[in-house]
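Record format v2
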Amino acid sequence: MTAPQPVAPILRRPLHEEATDRLRDLIVQGSLAPGSRLNERLLTAQLGVSRTPLREAFKVLATEGLVELLPNRGAIVSAIDPARVAETLAVMGALEALAGELACAAATEGQINEIRSLHQEMLANHARGDLAGYFKFNQAIHLKIVKYSGNAVLAQTYRHLNANVRRARYMANLSQERWDAAVREHGEILEALASRDVARIRVLLAEHLAHKLASVLGELRAAPAREAA
Amino acid sequence: MTAPQPVAPILRRPLHEEATDRLRDLIVQGSLAPGSRLNERLLTAQLGVSRTPLREAFKVLATEGLVELLPNRGAIVSAIDPARVAETLAVMGALEALAGELACAAATEGQINEIRSLHQEMLANHARGDLAGYFKFNQAIHLKIVKYSGNAVLAQTYRHLNANVRRARYMANLSQERWDAAVREHGEILEALASRDVARIRVLLAEHLAHKLASVLGELRAAPAREAA
DNA sequence: CTTCCTCATTTTGTATGCAATCGTGGCTTC
DNA sequence: GAAGCCACGATTGCATACAAAATGAGGAAG
């Protein structure tokens, strides 16, 4: 175990990394709409980098599935295909079930308390009807569970898939019933984790994701107009 | 379903894709050893491309986890970390369990027969002690199951993880007992698939991967010397 | 003999230049 | 009037140029 460094971590990240992260954020939060073209000249001007690191970022985001490369015709933000979102959520369900299982065994009490306090925050946001705040803590909880599984590959794979789904989330308006149900489910998940109930958390997380799948899918079917290029 | 195209598919792939694939193959089959530096000048000469597409390939392979980018010091083939391999196999186990489940529902009889004939080929290779041939058909079977799950995201995620593990495979020599056991397990998996036994195939695939994990891990512990940089 | 410094060489990170490709508008032709 | 063709501008793909950083050899100081 290395000692935490008290000194200021001067970080000069490569431009292509910076560009990749910036673009990813723009895509995930919807500032760059699905289907929209990524004009190199425009983006170099906006990001203040040259075409080389920008194009490197395109390649990375393409392997992440966030953009699509059209040979000789540049890059576009990949469309949000409901079928693909459904498939992604199915995979995430399997991953979360495993993560929950592992976390039951690996998570420390302190880590569980961390999740508990995030849960409280989430409940507060739910109570006051703050959807954005709710999503934020909801995401945080799921990411913590995955993280505290202690399986780094699992965590990275999950985050990866999550980026693609989050975009859909921004356009999917939760129904009040589904929202209430999701909150209840989260309560049960937390209980199972706290009591280290491996079998139960598996089932709960798998079901939770299955419900999320149905919900997101329903919303996407209801309003697919926005994603037309 | 689109009709198969009889016309010659003129393919002019971008250089960066070609470079990515070539490099990936070299890394996966071990021609580029873990820890070895990827000298740009050398590789541009060998591949016959300029630095731009080559560096783009580096970035892609880095997101795939096959290479590691050291700022200002270039790229190296990422090390094969036994702990990481174990984590990867755990994730693959969860994915295969899901894939088997889905394939039980989605695979056509023709597709199952495809897998059956691959299984026969695998048995033949096992019988004559051809380890390389065995691995080839073994891989093919697992990939087919994942493919016939009908979940493209699952399939891609799986292939992705698989690339990282295959490298370890090349250095892990199977014991005869484990080999025999694996062949038996495959037989059971095929049976479960053919009889569409969802619950059984889940368990079988999860166990099969768990065994694979133990085996590969044991081999890596036995001979970790080769991966020293 | 070791250690540290300096400087040349190599290698990477980024920007830019050039050629090929694509899309578009206008023109011709029927 | 519609369809096809051509030429032009815009954009991409790849190569190369230039600058910053790292590596390594050699020598001076201790």
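The interface with chain B takes residues 12-14, 16, 52, 55-56, 59-60, 62-64, 69, 71, 84, 87-88, 90-91, 94-95, 97-98, 102, 151-154, 156-157, 161 of chain A (CB under 8 Å).
Chain A has nine helices and three strands.
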